[in-house]
TrEMBL record:
A GO term, aspect molecular function: DNA binding
Protein name: Transcriptional regulator
Domain HTH hxlR-type: 30-128
PANTHER family: TRANSCRIPTIONAL REGULATOR, MARR FAMILY, TRANSCRIPTIONAL REGULATORY PROTEIN
Organism of derivation: Novosphingobium barchaimii LL02
Source superkingdom: Bacteria
SUPFAM superfamilies: Winged helix' DNA-binding domain
GO biological process, one term: regulation of DNA-templated transcription
Classification via CDD domains: HTH_ARSR
Keyword list, A-Z: DNA-binding, Transcription, Transcription regulation
Length: 238
């Protein structure tokens, strides 16, 4: 007798769950192929990226991704929720608003996305002048810091991209970044710009901050040491 596919609730799988079963695109047992079935739809990766530093409202995600329609965002969030990558929750009063948050499994995608990012920017086709969202910039900095250069350098930096504010904590071998909050340590350095591109030009392009619109407050020598920690991988041979 043919067995029915069971859901985690012990019920028969719905048509939607069957459509998202492993093998729906490729019919292949490969884990990498299955990963693409889970997160390979258009807009899925940018949506996941925007939740990597914390829960976001529907409108916040859409505002950061202006090319994304409300319909597509709804569909992708529903799909990511069904597969266990995202969960929907309501914040406690007085906010009492609905937000979307990555699950523990969803957050585990960050190192995967970091490796994809390091791999992709080696292409000569990568265009670093395209817009970058504040969260994407912060994740980029966590990705492109060269840990071996940190040594005994320790500092706290306030990073402002437009009206979005973040706190960066440089520790042994790593850079932690989170949305700025009350109780964060007083920063040793402050970096601010109206958009992400001035950060990219200064941190990766090594252009003088005053020429690209990046404002820096704090010890100039310490700021330069911090900037020097970041580097893009070399381009691949053509």
């Amino acid at each position: 007798m043919k067995l029915q596919k069971e859901t985690k609730r012990g019920k028969s799988a719905t048509d939607g769950e069957k459509a998202r079963a492993h093998g729906r695109w490729y019919g292949d047992a490969c884990g990498a192929a299955f990963a693409m079935e889970l997160i390979g739809e258009r807009w899925a990766i940018p949506i996941i990226r925007e939740m990597m530093l914390g829960a976001r409202r529907f409108g916040e995600i859409r505002a950061e991704l202006p090319g994304l329609s409300a319909k597509t965002l709804t569909e992708r969030l529903e799909s990511l929720e069904e597969t266990g990558i995202v969960r929907r929750e309501t914040l406690p009063p007085p906010a009492s608003v609905q937000v979307y948050r990555l699950t523990e499994w969803g957050l585990a995608l960050e190192p995967v996305m970091q490796e994809l990012g390091r791999w992709a920017v080696r292409s000569t086709l990568h265009d670093p002048t395209l817009p970058i969202t504040p969260v994407s910039l912060m994740l980029s900095m966590r990705t492109m810091i060269v840990a071996q250069r940190i040594g005994d350098l320790r500092l706290t930096a306030a990073l402002a991209v437009g009206d979005k504010h973040f706190t960066a904590l440089l520790g042994p071998g790593e850079l932690a970044i989170h949305p700025a909050a009350e109780g964060d340590p007083a920063p040793d350095l402050r970096f601010s710009a109206e958009a992400g591109l001035p950060f990219l030009a200064a941190f990766y392009g090594k252009r003088a901050s005053e020429t690209v619109g990046l404002r820096i407050e704090g010890d100039p020598a310490l700021a330069q040491k911090f900037i020097d920690l970041f580097s893009l991988p070399p381009k691949c041979a053509s």
